[in-house]
Amino acid sequence: MSFPPPNYEPMATTDVVFRYIFSSAGSEDGLLAFINAVQKSANRPLAEKIEVQNPFNLQSFLGDKGSVLDIKAVDINSRTFDIEMQTALHNAFESRILYYWSRLYADQIGSGDDYSFLNPVVSIVLARFEMFPQLPGFHHVFSVMSENYPEYRLTDDLQINILELTERKLGVKPNVKRTNTLPVPASPLTRVESPLDGWLDFLLNVNQKTEDEMETLLKRTPGLHTTYRKYREFSASSELREAAFAREKYERDRRSEILRAENVGREEGREEGREEGREEMLYSLWEMKFGSNGLANFQSKIKTATQKSSDAAYWAEIQKQILTQELPEEVLRRI
After folding, report:
1. Are 118 and 80 in contact (CB under 8 A)?
2. Average pLDDT along the chain, 335 residues, taken 10 residues at a time
3. Boundary residue ending a domain (236, 261, 291)
4. Domain check: are 273 and 128 in the same one?
5. Rounded distance between C-alpha atoms, residue 250 and residue 254, angstroms
6. Which positions ≥6 away from 186 have C-beta within 8 Å?
7. SS3 121
8. Is residue 185 domain-resident?
9. Comparing C-alpha atoms, which of 198, 164, 8 is closest to residue 188?
């Protein structure tokens, strides 16, 4: 296991850090302030008080490779808020967002319950990539409205926020001084115009800010003090720092494996007779991503597929599915 260097500062966008600063004990006030910054930007009603439904637990986080990495919270008006950080664009990502929103919405009631017990579900997706390059701005709010009269919404129960955290969308200037070899976050925002801008500046750049820069950001970003305290608390723990360093390394390795899978797919298009090596590579990728969860079922499917297809593009697609899907059942469903 590799250990972080002494001057290592974890990125707040790393999944384990993000979960800790927003869903560990004592993080509620900061999470509420962040949610309200998003709601204010979306011109939607603010939340008053929230309760985290899936509090952070380090051992569960590290031990379960199939863990869901989003944060769920419910306010005093029974609205559900689901917040997640995404670093890579998955296949059918838009459908995935809607699917998880619908699960949260439907799970509020049981069979035979009255539909009037359903309450709004607000999804907040922070994407480290562009989903809508054709649209201006970085915060996009989606709901169900009339095509002929878009000022009329069918319901206020559905609200999906997608925040595109790229330099182009945020309007930031490139920073050429960076020399670190870890994944590079966005550069600081050119100016802070709203509470949400301040929150995003913090999430993307807290690990690089000076004390004076943080003091300025804290003064003009309501509620950020609590989350910054949780970040310093995280950074002071050697166990948590090691977990964050390992997760950042895993993300680098995952991106490298995606490129490798694409290259292998092209290579297999030029060469024959590599079924055995191909299977072993797929099994290794599966264990790296999901452990033994669903491995036997996957091996059975691969054995059957080997007898039916030798198409290189098909095998490259399986590799890509393993590396991009979050849950093993999603991979099995697609092959």
Report:
1. no
2. 79 94 97 98 96 88 62 97 89 89 96 94 96 93 95 96 93 44 42 83 96 96 97 95 88 71 58 61 78 83 73 79 81 84
3. 236
4. no
5. 6
6. 165, 166, 167, 170, 172, 204, 205
7. strand
8. yes
9. 198
